[in-house]
Structure formats: structure tokens, C-alpha cells
Amino acid sequence: xxxxxxxxxxxxxxxxxxxxxxSSAIRLGSIALxxxxxxxxxxxxxxxxxxxxxxxxxxxxxxxxxAESLSQRxxxxxxxxxxFEALVGVDALFNQRLGAHPDIQSIALVQSxxxxxxxxxxxxxxxxxxxxxxxAPIVVRGITLGxxxxxxxxxxxxxxxxxxxxxxxxxxxxxxxxxxxxxRFSEAHGPQLRNHAVRLATRxxxxxxYDRSVVVPNRRGFDLRAQQxxxxxxxxxxxxxxxRRLIASLRQTExxxxxxxxxxxxxxxxxxxxxxxxxxxxxxxxxxxxxxxxWASLLMALSAAALPGMLLSQTTxxxxxxxxxxxxxxxxxxxxxxxxxxxxxxxxxxxxLSVLFAACVGLGAxxxxxxxxxxxxxxxxxxxxxxxxxxxxxxGAVLVACTAVEQAAHRQGQAHAMPRWHAASLGAWLGAAIWxxxxxxxxxxxxxxPLYGVLALTLPxxxxxxxxxxxxxxxxxWRNRIxxxxxxxxxxxxxxxxxxxxPNGGAGAGVTLAAGLLxxxxxxxxxxxxxxxxxxxxxxxxxxxxxxGLLVPHRGRRAGDNRDTxxxxxxxxxxxxxxxxxxxxxxxAPMLAVAGLLTAYLLxxxxxxxxxxxxxxxTAWLVGGTVGAVGSMAIxxxxxxxxxxxxxxxxxxxWSAWRTRRMALTLPARKDHDAA
Length: 676
Description:
70% of the residues lie in helices and 7% in strands. By secondary structure, it is an alpha/beta fold. It has a 4-stranded antiparallel sheet, covered by helices on one side. The chain is elongated.
């Protein structure tokens, strides 16, 4: 007997050996990144050359003024009768000026014969270049007794490059990432939507199923091939119906018994294989709901997270004594308000479009109020708390509405254009909350100022409102009600979760806690003023890591689990090592950036896995994220290092991975939930 060929392993090996082809989104993102890096480098070089003479004149004038201030004090002391050689307290005066002005390299008191009488200086490497020097003479009753020589540090191109990189790196990466995400949305809304419709139709034709018609409701006029294929299937269905009726007519008029049996067999074979429908075709509508909700959630969460980030990055803040604590408190308020608003939205039967349009109007009104100065009479603390609560409430309502639209296609006889794109709206929301929103707010505040920065943050809201007007189509998933989605989502979670709820709760709690912790860490490092370049690199690492983890497809369960476990161990070890190594160590910032990149990447992977297995509601994510943000606030209140938040997030992910593996062993193997 011939053994059955291992088709499953053969398909897996074929997929593994298939050559990797980059999509247009990856190509566009790479090209945008390269062009933006070149443009940023050229812009930084030209700006440095143009400002070189102005900077040198400014430093020379500043050094001269500080030297004259010291010489006047020494001249006054000599004028009242203290001999020049018997001056005391000069070293203390010079050291006080060194401590007050970090850019002063050395101060010296020089006698009239050129000998140095008193001198204080900072330590500097031997290869450091000499800075700008200025001499202020000490004149008493027309006699020059000496001079004060003050030398400033040489700024050079290094300091300018670091300050420029702190602004240009997040700008370049933000624009390149948004270009990549826009191209991915365009792919899912265009070519992949059409290709999936054709794939479903050809799969049905190959299986001899002509009882369904696959259509694309939001088709483009230049390409009707998917619709033509649906019409061809409809023609075959009508032909099969006529053949069935003809066979039935022949059966009634056929006098010979063996021919009647033959016709009965033909009729039963055709009906048994469901080659045609009894009451017409079943129409399957292929929609790009997950791509549309991804883009809508990204745009609105981008503005909702950028406005508080912009307020935090400004100099006037109500808690300047602890910027990290202020950022974590802001994240807690933002997530708590989002959780409350998400729960209220989930309990109502509002239309998703109504909620999203209301959020657009609310965010736009808040931004215009900040830009026009209507909210200026409020105190800094009231404005800070009110902005965090208002933006968080609208962000929570947006997440619930977008998740409702994303899941509505599974209940309306519709199919997703990308059936394996799990947690599209949640992933976009997390990417904006962890990195894109706070970084955009900080960059807008630094580059454009308070007025034009706030106006720039309204552009994503306007774009989202324009797209929502285009997606309001008849029989569209955007017309569903949110409470109906919440009930069906709870039923789906109970069905897939089975009766064992403890492992499910542990797996979901670990991922949601890690999401809240990293959201707080991203807000802290994106809006902090000290160590600007290191914080910028860490913020970019967090953002790019979570986006890569959300969008990288899962190739194999066992191989992916082993690789993720190894990466999780490395991330936890690096996070723990950053707590032991002093911050002055040269490799501290790179270790922290790599640890943040790995932790955020594993969070993105865990989010897609959790949504595929558990189907957690948006409110559960928001509540868990709030608890995680409260934990980060406790870490910041204890004045612990920033790496402590990353270590807590990696431990939460390890707990979630262990619980998820236990749960996967108890669940039966199943295919991805797809209406097709």
C-alpha cells in the first residue's frame, strides 16, 4: 500500500524555500529613509557652515563679557587697598564661575609680565582643540596690573552634530516609517484586496464550487477583473441550474429504468458537491476593513498622543522637578481616561462612524484651542491634566470603534482582504502611543514652536476625517453598531478560550501590562530634555521594534516560539545589565537601545499572538495598559533608572509567553478565523 505523501510538511518546506520578495511598502520605506538621511546630512552640513562665523563671533563676545565681569571685581578689590599679590578668594571665585557655566574651559589671572598668578581649568583630553579665549585687563588708577584670561570650550562640529541629530533622527525615522505604513495601507486597500478576491474565486472554481460569488464593493474603475471573474462564476452557476432543470425534465419523461437511474445519479452527484445553489448565489464581499481601521486608528491616535507629548516637551511644566514622573503620570491619566471612555463606548449602540467623527471634531477643537490661546487663562497644571484626559478619552473611543469595524466583517458574510493581519487597529494604536505620537509632538514643538506645531498636529485628524467620508458606503462594515460587536467578540473569546480561563487571563494580563510599561517608557524618553541624543535613540528603537513585531508575519509556530524565547532572554539580560552598569559607561546607551528594540519587538509579536488566540476586547487592553503605566509611575517615583521599566516589561512578556504556551497545548488546532 502506497503511503500518503506528507503534504503538510511539503507545503511548509515549499514556503520556507520560496524566495523572499520585498513588497512595494518596504521598497518605498527604504527609499524614503535613504533620501531623508541624505537630505538631513546635507541640511546639517550647510547649516553648520552658515552658522560657523556667527557662532564664533557670539562665543568671542560672550567670553569677553565674562572676562570683563571678573576683571571688574578684581579691580575693585585692588582699588580698595588690597595688594595685587595678596589677593585671596580668587580660586573660589573662578571655581564658582566654572560651576555656573559648563562651557568655560579655564580662567587664569595673568600678571603684567605675562606670568600666570592664579589659574583653574577643567580636565580635557590631550587631543582637544583650544577654544575661544578673551583677555580683560585689570586697570587701577590708569595702571595695568594684569589681565583675566577666560577660555571657552571648543564647540566644533561634534556638539552641533549631536544637537542636530537629536532633532533630525526622529524626524527622518518618523517620515520614513509613515511612508512605509502608508504604502502598506495602499497595498492592502488596493492590490492585495483585489488579489485576495481573485484568490477566493479561483479557489472556489478549482474545487467545483459555483454557489458563491466573490465581489469587491469598493472597486476602482480602472480594474474590473475581479468583478468580471464574479460575473463568469455567475454565468456558470446559471448554466448549472439550467442543466439541473433539464436533467429533472428528462427524468420525468424517460421511459427506460436504467436511464432514469443514471439521471438520478447525475443529479445527486451535482447536488451533493454543492455545485450550484438552490436559492441563488451566496455573495461574499471582500473588504479592506483591517487596512482601513489600521490607518484610521493610526492617524487619530497619532494626534491624540502627540498633543500631550507636545505639552510635556515644552519648558513650562507643572512638575519640572521630576520630568520622568510627570511623563509617567501623564501616561497613566491618558490610559485611564482611554479605558473609561472605551468601556462607555463599548456599552453603547453607537455607530462607529459617529464615534470617529466626534473624536475628529474633539481633537481638532482641542488643538485649535491650544493654538489660538483660548485655553491660555487656565493654569499649567489644569491644562496639562485636561489635555491628557481629553486626548486619552478620544483615543479610547477611537480604538473601540476601529476594533468594532475590523471585526464586523466576520459577522456579515464578508471576507478580509488580509485575513492573517491580526490586531490591525490595536497595533496601529500601540505604535502611535509608544513612539509615533510622543515623538511627533516633541519634534513639532522643537522645530515649529507652540503655534505652528499644534496646527501641524491637526493634519492627521483632517486626513482621517476625509477618509472616513469615503468609506461610508452602503452595506459597509463602517455602518455597524459597536455594542453588537462587543457581544459577538465576547462570544468569540469564550468559544476559542474554552473553559480554562486562568491561563487565558494570565497570558492577556502579561501582554497588556508590558504594553502599558513600554507606552510610559516611550513617553518618558521622547519628551525628556536631559541626555537628548541617547533618549532619542531609545525612543526610535522602541517605536521601530513594536512596529516590526506587529507587521512581521509568523513563519512557524515552534520555530517562532524558540526564537522569541531566545530574544526574550537576551532582552531581559540586557535590561538587567543596564541597571548594573553605570550610566557614564560608553556602552550604556547602546545596550539600553538594543534592549528596548528587542523588548518592543517581542511586544508586537505577543500582541498578534494574543489577539489570534484570545480575542481580548479593547477595554481589557486599556485597563491592563493603565495598570502597567501605574507600575512605571511607581518606578519613576522611586527615582529608579529608565531600564527598570524595560526590565519589568520583559518579565511581563516572559510570564505571558509561558501562559500562552500552556494555553496553546490545551486548545485544538484551528485555522485563522476568516469569513471566506
